[in-house]
Specification:
The complex is a heterodimer of chains A (355) and B (76).
Chain A (H helix, E strand, L loop, with lengths): L12 H21 L3 H11 L4 H25 L5 H63 L10 H8 L6 E4 L4 E4 H18 L3 H12 L3 H25 L5 H21 L7 H27 L7 H46 L1
Antiparallel strand pairs in A: 1-2
Helix pairs in contact in A: 1-2, 1-8, 1-9, 1-11, 2-3, 2-11, 3-8, 3-9, 4-6, 4-8, 4-10, 5-7, 6-7, 7-8, 10-11
Chain B lengths: L6 H20 L1 H8 L8 H25 L8
Classes of the chains: A mainly alpha (355), B mainly alpha (76).
Chain lengths: 355, 76
């Protein structure tokens, strides 16, 4: 019998409770913005002592069934473009497999600290750039006062939709866009590459479908769940062939996240569409700070930097505090806006039935 | 008239879901040993387990919110 040389942690009751809670909040966020539980779950598992690669693998294994449940739910609300999801997922799968190989190679060459450093740096770079972009757009919509209006298609998406490449044009009915498959290919590939690195492809996928292809926030975030399912499925197979999935972590996360994802999906029917962007940007930027704070710790472990053990411990606590802050901020915005939207919707229903 | 709430289905799916989690807890050692093997069909185990748990527990959580009265406002 061949065992993989991976260290799995001893599960304590405190860890189980923490996994259930962050699973729930992660699920809530995923159900709402289509992705993103993982940017909290992967680092949270890493802060419990789970090696980076096992955290990513277990996360992927919990992500695909969760995404399946979420996609099923949001498809009932007419928000999922299954064809767009599958087309994006086709090239995303290639990205996942190549990304997973790369990740494994880094672990072999640079060890645990090297792998952790790589994952953290990827978090910081991607979340900062894309998060800032999404935040700018959300602020623009808020300032214009058109928060209820249909989202405007970006200039880039207008151009992308205008490019006619014979033999490659595809029409996506729910998203109501007609684009060349040559644009969805690299977008899907980048989504997969990111997903296998930090387990959150959606931070390329969702903004990509919105700003590059021109889909609405609601459709993009719902369609991302289809991509997440396919990628999670492929990624899980890849990592379980290497024996790196900790099934206990995956199933405990699933216990909490299935409650969350269904609530988040229902929530999208209560709120103004631009709120999806607000939540996405807020969480991405706070998590970027959290992961940025531990970069010196991993650099210290690799001998690239002098760092007192006390400072390293403080940085790790501060990083964890920011993670909790991201979790709280995201879920508070979602639940508060759901409550507001629910009351407004219920009042409208009463008005209609009163007449 | 409002549809009756699915109390029975909630209890049934809750039972199946908690039974699955109880098995995971009781056979933790054996499960971890088998699920991290890389030979033969063993790598399929995490995928199958994730799907089985998601069907049982997903049904339970769906009924849970329904019984609580939390439903979508806008449908297609």
């Amino acid at each position: 019998m061949e065992h993989a040389a991976v260290q799995f942690i001893d599960l304590q009751y405190g860890n189980v409770l923490a996994l259930l809670a962050i699973g729930f909040v992660g699920g809530l966020v995923s159900g709402f913005i289509g992705s993103g539980g993982a940017f909290v779950l992967t680092p949270a598992m890493m802060s419990m002592g789970v090696p980076g690669v096992v955290a990513v693998a277990s996360n992927l294994c919990h992500k695909f069934p969760k995404a399946l449940v979420g996609a099923y739910q949001r498809n009932k609300f007419g928000q999922v473009d299954v064809k767009l999801g599958l087309v994006m997922a086709a090239s995303a799968t290639a990205g996942v497999w190549i990304g997973a190989d790369f990740q494994n190679q880094i672990k072999l060459d640079f060890g645990e600290a090297g792998s952790n450093l790589y994952v953290s740096l990827a978090f910081v770079v991607v979340l900062t750039i894309v998060g800032a972009f999404v935040l700018r757009d959300a602020i623009k919509i808020h300032r214009s006062g058109e928060t209820d209006a249909q989202e405007r298609v970006s200039r880039l998406a207008h151009w992308v939709q205008s490019v006619e490449i014979p033999g490659t044009m595809m029409y996506f009915k729910t998203a109501n866009i007609r684009v060349s498959a040559l644009f969805t290919l690299p977008l899907g590939f980048a989504t997969g590459l990111l997903a296998s690195t930090i387990a959150v492809g959606g931070f390329i996928g969702v903004p990509g479908m919105m700003y590059v292809l021109g889909a609405s926030g609601l459709v993009a975030s719902a369609t991302e769940l289809v991509i997440a399912f396919v990628m999670g499925f492929g990624g899980t197979i890849k990592y379980s062939l290497l024996g790196q999935v900790d099934i206990r972590l995956a199933l405990i996360l699933l216990a909490g996240s299935l409650f969350g994802i269904q609530l988040g999906a229902i929530g999208t029917t209560f709120v103004k569409p631009y709120l999806i962007k607000v939540v996405m940007a807020a969480i991405m930027l706070i998590v970027a700070v959290s992961r940025g704070l531990v970069v010196p710790v991993y650099l210290g472990q690799l001998g690239q930097m002098e760092l007192a053990p006390q400072t390293a411990a403080r940085l790790q606590s501060a990083s964890f505090a920011f993670l909790v802050l991201a979790l709280c901020t995201g879920s508070i915005i979602i639940i508060a806006s759901m409550l507001r939207g629910y009351r407004a919707g219920a009042a409208r229903l009463e008005e209609v039935s009163g007449k | 008239m409002e549809k009756p709430k699915p109390y029975l289905l909630l209890v049934a799916s809750g039972f199946v879901s908690s039974a699955l989690y109880l098995l995971l807890y009781l056979y933790e050692q054996e499960i971890m040993a088998a699920f991290t093997r890389t030979d033969g069909w063993f790598p399929a185990l995490p995928v199958i387990a994730a799907l089985v748990f998601s069907f049982a527990h997903g049904a339970f959580t769906g009924y849970f919110w329904e019984v609580l009265g939390i439903k979508a406002l806008r449908k297609k």
